[in-house]
Structure of L-rhamnose catabolism isomerase:
Amino acid sequence: MIDKTTIAAANETAESALRAEYDALGEALDRRGIDIGAVKDKVSAYGIAIPSWGVGTGGTRFARFPGTGEPAGIFDKLDDCGLIHQLTGATPRVSLHVPWDDADPADLIAKAEETGLGFDAMNSNTFQDQPDQPLSYKFGSLSHTKAEVRQQAIEHNLYCIELGRQIGSKALTIWVGDGSNFPGQSNFTKQFERYLASARDIYAGLPEDWRLFTEHKIFEPAFYSTVVQDWGTNYLIARELGERAYCLVDLGHHAPNVNIEMIVARLIQFGKLGGFHFNDSKYGDDDLDTGAIDPYRLFLVFNELVDAAGTPGFDPAHMLDQSHNVTDPIESLMNSAMEVQRAYAQALLVNRTALAGFQEENDAMMASETLKRAFRTDVTPILAMARLEKGAAIDPLAAYRHSGYRAKVTEERPASGAGGGGIV
Ligand SMILES: [Mn+2]
């Protein structure tokens, strides 16, 4: 973590310019009937979870090029996540991935308190084999043809729930790599029946105040078919399992050009939107930084979320899920958290009364312009003011670079291996 006085000193030099920009934006928004303070308060209250695996350097099927000072385990990861939250004030929770982050619950709680963090959804891992694991997931986990493999995967998920219960988590996210690589390799129907039966056993072990999230993915690691391939199958799972089962939407897990915001609207309409894994993509599940490729799409997703705000029971979980191959993961995660906040703030600026009127009158041009006007507004001063007021950094990237944190942890932490693939 960084000394608070360092952040305060950096903020002091930037504060007067920020106040001038904030006031100017406030006047402009006031002319549009928007109270900038109300928008800022909502942005300030917004938080997004960091995935523990995000603070390590990712990789591709080809190689992984490790950065320096990479976290060696969950406690290092929590240090990095704590710093991200300290500088941005936007990432109060961490999402653990088991068994990568398996540890004594008391130690996890103590470290979370030290770093000012809480725990978000637990993530199970049955897409790779662990060193001490009796049975292999090479041909699937929850949908495997052999009952004993399925049982092993079920028990792992129940273990994740129990660990999560002890550290204050309230949700389990299941993502499986199950699928097939050749036409004919698997019977689609039987495979999905096996998956559903396994998922029911996990759902039965869910505490009353927990939610179960299932995440669809169009392809990979199975290249011909995956069991939970799209939002339709995901919706069927949530409907089959019960009222505490919801669909998680990972933006990268769709074919290019899929209308994700419309999927979001459908899931909201039928009460099954559980949450998000935010990232961006150009070609497939390339896990690029949120907002790096298509910030307008991100805005359109948030437009649906703001539109649905206040619906009873509507409480989607927000998390980043990215792979950082060429950047410092801390910088990418800070930037991405702020991009998500930006999309949220822009969506709050949409004149919804005017939009509804244009929709009713079939005025496509003005409806589109209503959204564009909100999207084109530079809300940077709102985000920065929210950070300043909570003691975070006006400019988190500059403060981070100035702090020398990476150089410090590079001295303290052992170098991690390069090795082969590193898809995370
Ligand atoms: Mn994901």
Observations:
- The pocket of manganese (II) ion is lined by residues 215, 250, 277, 321 (CB under 6 Å).
- Residues 16 and 81 are 29 Å apart (CA to CA).
- The domain at 4-412 is CATH 3.20.20.150 (TIM Barrel).
- The first helix runs from residue 4 to 31.
